[in-house]
Amino acid sequence: MPKLPIFDPQQVPVFQVDHHLEAVPAQRLTPQALQARFAHPPIWQPELVRERKFMDRSPTQAAVLLGLVMRDEPTVLLTQRSAHMTTHPNQIAFAGGKCDEGDADAVATALREAQEEVGLDAHHVQVLGTLPKYVTGSAFHVTPVVALISPHMTLQRNTHEVAAAFEVPLAFLMNPAHHRWHRYVHEGATREWLSIPYQDGDELRFVWGATAGMLRNFYRFLRA
Fold first, then answer.
1. What is the CATH number of domain 27-171+206-223?
2. ∠ at Cα 28 (172, 41), nearest 5°?
3. Residues of 5-19 as b/e, b for ≥16 C-beta within 10 angstroms?
4. How many CB atoms within 10 Å of residue 202?
5. Which of 27, 40, 78, 90 is 20 to 30 Å from the Cα of 199, by its Cα?
6. Is the whole model's pTM more than 0.70, yes or no?
7. Backbone angles phi, psi at 18, to 5 degrees
8. Domain spans of the chain?
9. pLDDT digit string (tens) for 130-158?
């Protein structure tokens, strides 16, 4: 199994942008529409479920909070991991982490991790449901927990784990015209992934890999 070298994902060429796919209509992004979608889910299939393996380790169950902040224009809560983290340093991610023995389920893991990482109190969160597991190349089996977050919430980052917490408009992320496909070849193995770059003032938020993949599945769920 070729070991993935250190590389800058922003420098990997883009071979496709999905301008041909329709965005999720604004009326499907309201709290009421999102609640109805999870209450009566459509028949659908996730597009991205497993990355090419690049790390030999035992599978680890994990969960993340795909949190939708219900502002006038809904946003998605994201974090940037600290540079010293042993897995996926500096990457844009959802709040989340591996499941502990004391966690009742994936929802409990996602809520606990969001509290620990960004100080998000569970009473500001309304869980809608989960998306199918996403298996990363580093052997994390990740359950995305989708939830509405009150705009009245306050955050307090755990600076040891989280370098930044920020929000990206949900409509931007649910528009495939912003979804870019990258291809990287190393030692005869080809890896492909999505990125969804977002210009946040002076800061470029380069959403890619597993986080972009789970957002793509959420797009498929909302478009079905």
1. 3.90.79.10
2. 120
3. eeeeeeebeeeeebe
4. 5
5. 27
6. yes
7. -90, 55
8. 27-171+206-223
9. 999 999 988 899 999 999 999 999 999 99
